[in-house]
Amino acid sequence: MHYKRILLKLSGEALMGDQQYGIDPNRLDAYADEIKKVSENGVEVAIVIGGGNIFRGVSGASAGMDRVQGDHMGMLATVINGLALQSALENKGVDTRLQSAIKINEVAEPFIRRRAMRHLEKGRVVIFGGGTGNPYFTTDSAAVLRAIEIEADVILKGTRVDGIYTSDPEKDKSATKFDKISFEDVLRKGLKVMDTTAFTLSQENELPIVVFDMNTHGNLLRIVSGENIGTVVNL
Ligand code: UDP
């Protein structure tokens, strides 16, 4: 395998499938299959999952809610998604642990770096819920932070688009895809990969990011085997 330890970032919205809200059981099941395959191939898998399918702090704030209160709801939403993914994986016989950045001990282990790394060494899939545990951050930031902390080789950002394009391919038919691109070029061209906080944290720590289409069967395994089917962001 090309990567030994990966941090997979899945957005909450991806879990909705064709629904407007919540979790699509078929999508969840498909993701669990993809993750199981890479784990069975000996790759150590950590996952950060978003919460946008249930709640986003910014949307709460625009509806008049206190932002911090909304962000707490968003963080809890990521724990809900983490529990759903954990259960889908365990149904398929994959050993998992859910660690939360906010203490919720009856539901998930607290985030303890050394323990997380030990789980990975033992072949367990570790899901990180609760984002960074702080308001005003995103789960992309959580993904980069955890990836650095656990010394992952790469962060794999699973999306519904198969990489980074010159412009939004869902709107602009003439958009072309990059096979690889530098951090600097992403910033210079104003391309959207992650929010700026997350992106610069990755750049400063020289952590490569691969953006790829998570919804095509077998793609995750292709990526970890070294096939360049997405876009690699590197130094
Ligand atoms: N959130 C937060 N701190 C974090 C991560 C997430 O406050 O470190 C909250 C924030 O309100 C965010 C919500 O959780 O809107 C869901 O996370 P995100 O929007 O990143 O999820 P995704 O877009 O990946 O589904």
Task: Explain the overall architecture.
The protein is α/β, with parallel strands linked by helices and 235 residues long. It has a single domain, classed as Acetylglutamate kinase-like (Carbamate kinase). 37% of the residues lie in helices and 18% in strands. It has a nine-stranded mixed sheet with strand order 4-3-5-2-1-6-8-9-7, sandwiched between helices. The longest helix has 25 residues. It is globular. The mean pLDDT is 97. The structure holds uridine-5'-diphosphate (UDP). The site of uridine-5'-diphosphate has 24 residues, from helix 2, helix 3 and helix 5.
Total beta strands: 9
Overall CATH class: Alpha Beta
* CATH-assigned fold name: Carbamate kinase
Write down the secondary-structure element order.
Answer: EHEHHEEHEHEEHHEHE
Number of helices: 8
State the strand order across the main sheet. Answer: 4-3-5-2-1-6-8-9-7
**CA-based gyration radius:** 17 Å
Query: How many domains make up the coordinates?
Result: 1
Percent helix range: 25-40%
Principal-axes shape call? globular
User: How far is the first residue's CA from the last residue's CA?
Assistant: 22 Å
Relative strand content = 15-25%
| CATH 2nd-level architecture | 3-Layer(aba) Sandwich
The chain-level structural class is alpha/beta
The overall pLDDT, averaged over residues, is: 97
Oligomer: single chain
